[in-house]
Specification:
It comes from Actinoplanes lutulentus. With about 180 residues, this protein is mainly α. It has two domains: about 1-45; about 60-175, no CATH class. The protein has helices at about 1-25, 30-45, 60-85, 105-115, 145-165, 165-175; strands at about 95-100, 120-125, 130-140. Helix 1 packs across helix 2, helix 3 packs antiparallel against helix 5 (about 145-165) and helix 4 (about 105-115) packs across helix 5.
Amino acid sequence: MIAGRWRDRCVAAAALTVIWTLLWGSFTPLTVIGGLLIAIVVLTVFPLPPVTYAGRVHPLGVLKFAGRFAVDLVVASAQVAALAFRFGSTPRSAVIAVPLRVPSDLGLTLTAEALSLVPGSLIVEVDRERGVLYVHVLGVSDLADVERFRGEVLALERRLVAAFGSPAERTLCRENR
């Protein structure tokens, strides 16, 4: 248990150091050491609750997720642009509750972040206990659009679990299609 916590803290420190280095825009020994020191101070002064990652990165799943995510970004951008330039009609929107199949904290966070990056959708609220995302969506005109969007969110979750999920999460996602 303690070894896992130290591993998680080292991973968090490394990630914060990489972010620090990227923010400075230069990869020098001073920048890396400074980032590592800042990371250690931040993790000591502001301890985060333990977030364990039971899965592993699946390269093929990551490629599938990244490719489909890029397509979703382009298509959604075009759809939002079309809604913005459509004269004479007011775009309809809705707040839709989407219960996820794998309601872990990491799964909720990854799905919510990926969904918020796509134009036309925004996370309004997250119910951690029940594993439900409440999403504001543009361009919804009827119940069929609502169900289509729910299916798209669940497909996004399935791609994320295929890319980063544990074997148990992957099985759960496949069983609850």
